[in-house]
Amino acid sequence: MKRLVGAVAFVGLTAISSAAMAQEIQLRGPLAGAPSCRHCVQYRAGRVSLAPTFGITFQDEFDRTMFAGAQLNYHFNDLIAIGAWGAYGVAHVRTNLTSQVTDRLSGNATGTPNIPAGGEFPNQIGQLNWFISAPQLTLVPLRGKLSLFQNIFIDTDFYLFGGLGIVGLTERQSAVYDASMDPTQANVPTAASLAGNQTARSSRVALTGTFGVGLNFYINRFISLQVEYRAFPFAWNTMGTDESSRANTCGPTGTSSCAGFPDYAVRPDTNGAGGGFNLDDNDRQFRWNQMVNFGLNFFLPTAPRISD
To answer: In three state form, how does the secondary structure of the chain look?
Structure first.
């Protein structure tokens, strides 16, 4: 027992002594109170940055959009900035899924109200047209140097951003069709009406939040290359089909809830032959839209501040 007590006392005295020594060095050492960096280049503080940007969406189901735009920021210091970003969709690239649907249904001349003609399927899908993020707040929590081949060192910072997103897009125009094909119905789809609605477009503006992360690589003291990931989730009808219904019953005489199923599987028509197709805003589904952006920043004034 005496040996155990002696060992515990020795460990305790050693720990106290180490803590006291460490505290003494921290308070009385030659670097006590010194800043973490002297004569540092403050790349952002008090400067305006303007960047032409180019980006592309990814993980899209049917259509990828290439955006060309510009970003403007005012940096209060090296940590916080406020600004705006805007871009226009200069090109659209169909995905492999869109090509497969088009090829497999290309011989489908009339089809259904969902996909009237397979060859025209690319004309009914939703597309992003333009994007504005304003105001947009940027936070820079990390800064340092990256080493290339242990020989070249590049000043780099990691930043977070977020703001209000305003997105302009086009979707397939709303329409109501009776799925029973009963000639006595007023909304019986014909080949001409189906083809006309399939290519008819409707434009709208969606409000959302946008946020992401980025890296800034400083080429020199007033030019940098930025790479950033941006997310902007919101609901829209990417396929241009009847996806959901507000109906509360399933079938003409059913009692179970079927809300959320397509109208043609839920909503009864007047002669009881089945539900009708209803293309409307209820068919929009939540999507985690995302993109990657590349930009070339120009900082003004060209000479940055130097810390003490």
So the answer is: CHHHHHHHHHHHHHHHHHHHHHHHHHHHCCCCCCCCCCCCEECCCCEEEEEEEEEEEECCCCEEEEEEEEEEEEECCCCEEEEEEEEEEEEEEECHHHHHHHHHCCCCCCCCCCCCCHHHHHHCCCEEEEEEEEEEEEEEEEEEEEEECCCEEEEEEEEEEEEEEEEEEEEECCEEECCCCCCCCCCCCCHHHHHHHHHCEEEEEEEEEEEEEEEEEECCCCEEEEEEEEECCEEECCCCCCCCCCCCCCCCCCCCCCCCCCHHHHCECCCCCCECEEECHHHCEEECCEEEEEEEEEEECCCCEECC
